[in-house]
Amino acid sequence: MPTAYHLVHYRRFDAGQFDLRGATLESLCRSALDVVNEVQVTLWQRAQDRLFELSTAPGRQLLLNKVADLSSAVFGELCLVQASNLQALLELSASKVQLSNITTAEIFDLTERFAPDGSQFVRGMAYWLAIGDNLFFVKTHSMTSEYLHEYIKWLIRNVEPLRTTAFLFQLKAEFDKSQFSGDIGEIRSLRVSGKMSPQFSVSPPRTDASPRVVDTVRTVADKIAEFAQAVPVVEALFGKPKAESLLKSLGKDEYLTVEAAVKVRGRRTAESRAKLRDIASDLADLTEGKVQVEGKDGKVSDGDAILRTRMPFTLAREGSNLLEFDNVADQPQEVYNRFVKDGKIKAQ
Length: 348
Fold this sequence. Notes:
12-stranded antiparallel β-sheet; 6 helices; globular
């Protein structure tokens, strides 16, 4: 069977201070799908009622298409669909066209088509698996983790004990706050960029005891000027409160510089390492810019803890963009078992 490699993304469900009475993300999804309508038919049996209109993307909907209770987990296939849109097509019938006063060229016709009656274009997909409070997913094309978050929030909204509350939860990319919950090891680099801004990074230096060349500034005066110039850039990048807390955490031999990147340099302290992890964790949920955090055992990009192990998935057919449902249900469970064994997450 043809296969393709995809990254498996990881998030941890966090209800904050809200009392879920022992419920997990897995059990909430199962309970939501068990809800019956007036004729006692569950949501498992009602595909049309699993269609969710995206308020943030008019004209686009999310459909939980195939969905299965695996006993040990809940697994689903989420489709991003768009009904009222045109699809560009290249018609392979050549014709000669005069494109300017000078140029006559042979071209293929480029046309646009609406989806056939009774169908919609699929713009992206996510295959997701909830085990306890652990969420694993593989996404394709225009699907985002924010869309998956929105759908899960909509799906579980009518489940007790959430029915009468404005329940807000997080799908968190956890860092080294404990030995569990998605620890990606010591953070090696943190990069933030926006559409119109230059790209900056925070990169801790090597911490091994081997000899190495350490960048230094020429004089104390240069160091003070360099540090002073770095502070407003860091404030603009992280926000004033986070910038102030990072500055307070620096040891006497640490300082900030601004070059092509923003870096923490000098001999590291435990406090500054912890503060960098905290800032990186907060930035993992940033949506207005591109965020990438890389550690020893994984990385976080655009808010998703991406496991370093690339998993092979069976394709529906040669050249297909669709993954084979049973196989894609198995692979995230393999990742889950591996991360439990390695002590990255707790078994649930």
